Task: structure prediction
Amino acid sequence: MTLLLPASTGLIFLSLFAACDKATQLYYRTDHHWTSDAALLAYQTYNKLWDLMTAPLIPKILSDSFKGTLSASSGLRTSETDEIYAYLPDQATDYTVSLTAENTKSASVFDVQSLSTKSQYNVFFGGNHPEVVIDSASESKKVLMVFKDSYANCFVPFLIPDYARIIMIDPRYYTEDISETIQSNGVTDILFLYNANTAAEDHSLYQLTAQ
Result:
């Protein structure tokens, strides 16, 4: 599920049920996250809503030995592994990724060092952070703010060619004035992208957006 709030037009609820092809593995067998295949379906649905073109994407396997949190916590499927994929554009858009709290910058959304740890899903952005800012060479003038949990981490890279700046905010860790952040960055669109359980249970989301 995604909740989309474009600043200019009001609240739109975007349902992904119709896009979920049962032939596609939507969730990892050993983990609670959705797969990059599921995130791709969400991205294609998102682009149809705004009448945007999805550029050709090339799948690349990042890991064939992923064992997620379900396997670790339950002791089940311990002999099974999952594959983690990334979908890379045929023509890449240059961008930089800034982790505000850590005061670091990189030229990739992928943290390949995480692939040698038990938390391989952290290959996307190195895990969760209070604020991540992606500045791209996109021709777009739009600025997107994403209120998110870890489900957004494999989805947001699809959006890089579509926005000049993407600001990812994790309300569980973010403590700054969100209204000031929206104004100072000239945010044009706002996207809420959450695991449904997190959205229902995380009171910090409501406290933050109430600002």
Remarks:
- The longest strand covers residues 57-66.
- Residues 36-49 form the longest helix (14 residues).
